[in-house]
Amino acid sequence: MTDSAKGKLIILAGPSGVGKTALRRAFSTFYQDLYSRMTPLILFTSRPIRPFESEGVDYFFRSLSEIRNLKQGPRYIVHKVHQDFQAIDKINLHELIKDSDVFYEGNTAIGRLFQTHPDLSAIKKITIFLSPLSRQEILRIRVRGKKNFQDTLLTLMRQKLLRRMKQYGRILNAQEVKDIQQRAIDAYFELKEAYHFDYIIPNHDGEDSDNWDKSFLPAGDAGRALDTLAAILTNHPHPNIEKWEENLVP
Question: Cα angle at 126 between 40 and 139, to 5 degrees?
Fold first, then answer.
Protein backbone atom coordinates (compact mmCIF):
# COMPACT_ATOMS: atom_id res chain seq x y z
CA MET A 1 0.00 0.00 0.00
CA THR A 2 1.45 3.36 -0.99
CA ASP A 3 1.05 6.49 1.05
CA SER A 4 0.86 10.17 0.07
CA ALA A 5 0.81 11.13 3.72
CA LYS A 6 1.61 14.58 5.05
CA GLY A 7 2.15 13.24 8.53
CA LYS A 8 4.17 10.58 10.28
CA LEU A 9 3.43 7.89 12.82
CA ILE A 10 4.88 8.58 16.27
CA ILE A 11 5.30 5.34 18.21
CA LEU A 12 5.73 5.31 21.99
CA ALA A 13 6.24 1.70 23.10
CA GLY A 14 7.58 -0.20 26.09
CA PRO A 15 6.77 -2.88 28.67
CA SER A 16 3.54 -2.91 30.68
CA GLY A 17 3.68 -0.62 33.69
CA VAL A 18 6.70 1.38 32.50
CA GLY A 19 4.65 4.61 32.35
CA LYS A 20 3.60 4.94 28.70
CA THR A 21 0.00 5.91 29.40
CA ALA A 22 0.99 8.27 32.22
CA LEU A 23 3.54 9.90 29.91
CA ARG A 24 1.04 10.28 27.09
CA ARG A 25 -1.53 11.85 29.42
CA ALA A 26 1.05 14.21 30.93
CA PHE A 27 2.20 15.15 27.43
CA SER A 28 -1.36 15.94 26.37
CA THR A 29 -1.74 18.18 29.45
CA PHE A 30 1.58 20.00 29.71
CA TYR A 31 2.41 20.14 25.99
CA GLN A 32 -1.16 20.62 24.89
CA ASP A 33 -0.36 22.72 21.83
CA LEU A 34 2.07 20.13 20.51
CA TYR A 35 -0.19 17.19 21.30
CA SER A 36 -3.25 18.87 19.77
CA ARG A 37 -1.56 18.77 16.36
CA MET A 38 -1.46 14.97 16.53
CA THR A 39 -4.24 12.44 16.12
CA PRO A 40 -4.26 9.57 18.63
CA LEU A 41 -4.38 6.12 17.05
CA ILE A 42 -6.88 3.90 18.84
CA LEU A 43 -6.52 0.15 18.48
CA PHE A 44 -8.99 -2.65 19.16
CA THR A 45 -8.22 -4.95 22.10
CA SER A 46 -9.69 -8.07 23.63
CA ARG A 47 -8.45 -7.31 27.15
CA PRO A 48 -10.87 -6.03 29.81
CA ILE A 49 -11.19 -2.31 30.32
CA ARG A 50 -9.22 -0.93 33.30
CA PRO A 51 -10.26 1.73 35.80
CA PHE A 52 -9.77 5.25 34.38
CA GLU A 53 -9.89 3.94 30.78
CA SER A 54 -12.59 4.92 28.31
CA GLU A 55 -14.05 3.24 25.26
CA GLY A 56 -12.81 4.90 22.08
CA VAL A 57 -10.20 6.93 23.98
CA ASP A 58 -7.75 4.31 25.19
CA TYR A 59 -8.95 1.37 23.06
CA PHE A 60 -11.98 -0.03 21.36
CA PHE A 61 -12.78 -2.85 23.77
CA ARG A 62 -14.20 -5.93 22.05
CA SER A 63 -14.63 -9.61 22.84
CA LEU A 64 -11.95 -12.09 21.83
CA SER A 65 -14.22 -13.57 19.18
CA GLU A 66 -14.91 -10.12 17.68
CA ILE A 67 -11.17 -9.37 17.47
CA ARG A 68 -10.45 -12.73 15.87
CA ASN A 69 -13.19 -12.14 13.31
CA LEU A 70 -11.35 -9.01 12.16
CA LYS A 71 -8.64 -11.29 10.76
CA GLN A 72 -11.04 -12.52 8.09
CA GLY A 73 -10.69 -9.41 5.94
CA PRO A 74 -7.76 -7.38 4.61
CA ARG A 75 -8.54 -4.21 6.57
CA TYR A 76 -7.13 -5.22 9.96
CA ILE A 77 -3.81 -6.47 11.29
CA VAL A 78 -4.47 -8.69 14.31
CA HIS A 79 -1.63 -9.53 16.67
CA LYS A 80 -1.28 -11.29 20.02
CA VAL A 81 -0.20 -9.07 22.93
CA HIS A 82 0.53 -10.91 26.19
CA GLN A 83 -2.62 -12.99 26.84
CA ASP A 84 -4.86 -10.90 24.58
CA PHE A 85 -5.21 -9.75 20.96
CA GLN A 86 -5.10 -6.29 19.44
CA ALA A 87 -6.07 -5.07 15.98
CA ILE A 88 -4.89 -2.18 13.82
CA ASP A 89 -7.29 -0.66 11.31
CA LYS A 90 -4.95 -0.09 8.36
CA ILE A 91 -7.39 1.99 6.35
CA ASN A 92 -8.09 4.29 9.28
CA LEU A 93 -4.36 4.76 9.91
CA HIS A 94 -3.63 5.64 6.30
CA GLU A 95 -6.54 8.09 6.23
CA LEU A 96 -5.48 9.81 9.46
CA ILE A 97 -1.88 10.20 8.41
CA LYS A 98 -2.83 12.01 5.21
CA ASP A 99 -3.67 15.11 7.24
CA SER A 100 -1.61 15.05 10.44
CA ASP A 101 0.91 13.26 12.58
CA VAL A 102 -0.55 10.22 14.33
CA PHE A 103 0.42 9.27 17.89
CA TYR A 104 0.42 5.64 19.05
CA GLU A 105 1.16 4.59 22.63
CA GLY A 106 1.23 0.94 23.56
CA ASN A 107 2.92 -2.43 23.62
CA THR A 108 6.35 -3.17 22.18
CA ALA A 109 5.04 -6.00 20.00
CA ILE A 110 2.66 -3.58 18.26
CA GLY A 111 5.41 -0.98 18.04
CA ARG A 112 7.59 -3.49 16.20
CA LEU A 113 4.67 -4.53 14.02
CA PHE A 114 4.35 -0.95 12.81
CA GLN A 115 8.03 -1.08 11.88
CA THR A 116 8.00 -4.42 10.08
CA HIS A 117 4.58 -4.95 8.46
CA PRO A 118 4.82 -4.54 4.66
CA ASP A 119 1.46 -2.76 4.43
CA LEU A 120 2.82 -0.01 6.72
CA SER A 121 6.30 0.31 5.26
CA ALA A 122 5.58 3.53 3.34
CA ILE A 123 4.58 5.42 6.48
CA LYS A 124 7.18 7.76 7.94
CA LYS A 125 7.81 6.95 11.58
CA ILE A 126 9.43 8.23 14.76
CA THR A 127 9.95 5.29 17.09
CA ILE A 128 10.44 5.78 20.84
CA PHE A 129 10.97 3.13 23.51
CA LEU A 130 10.28 3.86 27.18
CA SER A 131 12.57 1.70 29.33
CA PRO A 132 12.48 0.92 33.08
CA LEU A 133 16.30 0.77 33.05
CA SER A 134 18.95 3.08 31.65
CA ARG A 135 21.85 1.89 29.52
CA GLN A 136 24.29 2.32 32.43
CA GLU A 137 22.04 0.32 34.75
CA ILE A 138 21.84 -2.51 32.25
CA LEU A 139 25.63 -2.56 31.96
CA ARG A 140 25.96 -2.77 35.75
CA ILE A 141 23.40 -5.54 36.17
CA ARG A 142 24.41 -7.71 33.24
CA VAL A 143 27.93 -8.38 34.60
CA ARG A 144 26.24 -10.75 37.08
CA GLY A 145 24.96 -12.88 34.22
CA LYS A 146 21.85 -13.24 32.06
CA LYS A 147 19.82 -15.17 34.66
CA ASN A 148 20.46 -12.53 37.30
CA PHE A 149 19.51 -9.79 34.84
CA GLN A 150 16.23 -11.53 33.96
CA ASP A 151 15.37 -12.12 37.62
CA THR A 152 16.14 -8.51 38.54
CA LEU A 153 13.98 -7.15 35.72
CA LEU A 154 11.18 -9.61 36.53
CA THR A 155 11.08 -8.47 40.15
CA LEU A 156 11.18 -4.80 39.15
CA MET A 157 8.36 -5.05 36.64
CA ARG A 158 6.19 -7.30 38.80
CA GLN A 159 6.40 -4.75 41.63
CA LYS A 160 5.44 -1.93 39.28
CA LEU A 161 2.46 -3.84 37.94
CA LEU A 162 1.27 -4.91 41.39
CA ARG A 163 1.49 -1.34 42.67
CA ARG A 164 -0.44 -0.13 39.65
CA MET A 165 -3.26 -2.57 40.40
CA LYS A 166 -3.29 -1.50 44.05
CA GLN A 167 -3.81 2.09 42.90
CA TYR A 168 -7.01 0.88 41.24
CA GLY A 169 -8.19 -0.43 44.63
CA ARG A 170 -8.58 -3.93 43.25
CA ILE A 171 -8.29 -7.31 44.95
CA LEU A 172 -6.58 -9.43 42.33
CA ASN A 173 -8.09 -12.69 41.16
CA ALA A 174 -5.99 -15.65 40.01
CA GLN A 175 -6.19 -14.69 36.33
CA GLU A 176 -5.00 -11.14 37.02
CA VAL A 177 -2.05 -12.43 39.05
CA LYS A 178 -1.15 -14.73 36.16
CA ASP A 179 -1.44 -11.83 33.70
CA ILE A 180 0.87 -9.64 35.80
CA GLN A 181 3.45 -12.42 35.97
CA GLN A 182 3.33 -12.89 32.19
CA ARG A 183 3.67 -9.17 31.51
CA ALA A 184 6.64 -8.99 33.89
CA ILE A 185 8.28 -11.93 32.11
CA ASP A 186 7.61 -10.37 28.69
CA ALA A 187 9.44 -7.18 29.72
CA TYR A 188 12.78 -8.92 29.18
CA PHE A 189 11.95 -9.83 25.59
CA GLU A 190 10.64 -6.31 24.98
CA LEU A 191 13.93 -4.79 26.18
CA LYS A 192 15.71 -7.12 23.74
CA GLU A 193 13.78 -5.35 20.96
CA ALA A 194 14.54 -1.81 22.14
CA TYR A 195 17.58 -1.33 19.89
CA HIS A 196 15.24 -1.27 16.88
CA PHE A 197 13.78 2.06 18.09
CA ASP A 198 15.15 5.47 17.10
CA TYR A 199 15.12 6.84 20.64
CA ILE A 200 15.12 5.28 24.09
CA ILE A 201 13.94 7.18 27.17
CA PRO A 202 14.93 5.64 30.53
CA ASN A 203 12.22 6.13 33.14
CA HIS A 204 11.97 4.74 36.67
CA ASP A 205 8.61 6.40 37.35
CA GLY A 206 6.19 3.80 36.05
CA GLU A 207 2.44 4.17 36.17
CA ASP A 208 2.63 3.28 39.87
CA SER A 209 4.59 6.46 40.67
CA ASP A 210 3.14 9.49 42.43
CA ASN A 211 5.50 11.72 40.45
CA TRP A 212 2.99 11.92 37.59
CA ASP A 213 0.39 13.51 39.84
CA LYS A 214 2.19 16.71 40.83
CA SER A 215 -0.20 19.56 40.05
CA PHE A 216 2.46 21.95 38.74
CA LEU A 217 4.47 19.49 36.59
CA PRO A 218 5.50 15.82 36.79
CA ALA A 219 8.55 15.43 39.04
CA GLY A 220 11.61 13.17 39.08
CA ASP A 221 12.04 10.75 36.19
CA ALA A 222 8.44 11.38 35.15
CA GLY A 223 9.30 15.03 34.51
CA ARG A 224 12.50 14.14 32.68
CA ALA A 225 10.68 11.61 30.50
CA LEU A 226 8.05 14.23 29.67
CA ASP A 227 10.63 16.83 28.65
CA THR A 228 12.61 14.21 26.70
CA LEU A 229 9.56 13.21 24.70
CA ALA A 230 8.87 16.87 23.87
CA ALA A 231 12.49 17.37 22.82
CA ILE A 232 12.35 14.38 20.47
CA LEU A 233 9.12 15.54 18.86
CA THR A 234 10.45 19.07 18.35
CA ASN A 235 13.77 17.76 17.02
CA HIS A 236 15.85 19.11 19.89
CA PRO A 237 18.71 17.35 21.69
CA HIS A 238 18.22 16.14 25.25
CA PRO A 239 20.74 14.46 27.58
CA ASN A 240 18.17 11.83 28.59
CA ILE A 241 17.91 10.35 25.08
CA GLU A 242 19.65 7.01 24.63
CA LYS A 243 20.36 4.70 21.68
CA TRP A 244 21.15 1.08 22.43
CA GLU A 245 23.27 -1.42 20.56
CA GLU A 246 21.79 -4.79 19.61
CA ASN A 247 23.66 -6.85 22.21
CA LEU A 248 23.21 -4.47 25.17
CA VAL A 249 20.52 -6.56 26.88
CA PRO A 250 22.08 -9.97 27.69
Answer: 115
pTM: 0.93
**Using one digit for the tens of pLDDT, what is the confidence trace for 87-113?**
999 999 999 999 999 999 999 999 999
- Continuous H helices in 44-173: 64-69, 90-96, 108-116, 135-142, 146-167
| Torsion angle of C-alpha atoms 213, 61, 64, 110, degrees rounded to 10 | -60
Could you read off the pLDDT of 5-35 as tens digits, one per residue? 689 999 999 999 999 999 999 999 999 999 9
pLDDT, one tens digit per residue, over 157-182 is: 999 999 888 877 767 788 888 989 99
Spatial CA neighbour of 77 closest among 85, 69, 88, 66: 88
Q: What are phi and psi of 45, to 5 degrees?
A: -145, 150
Residues 6+ apart with CB under 8 A from 45: 59, 60, 61, 62, 67, 81, 84, 85, 86, 87
Sorted by where each starts, the structural domains of the chain and their CATH numbers stand as 9-233 (3.40.50)
Pairing of strands 199-202, 60-61: unpaired
Residue 6 CB coordination number (10 Å) = 11
* 225 and 25 Cβ atoms separated by less than 8 Å: no
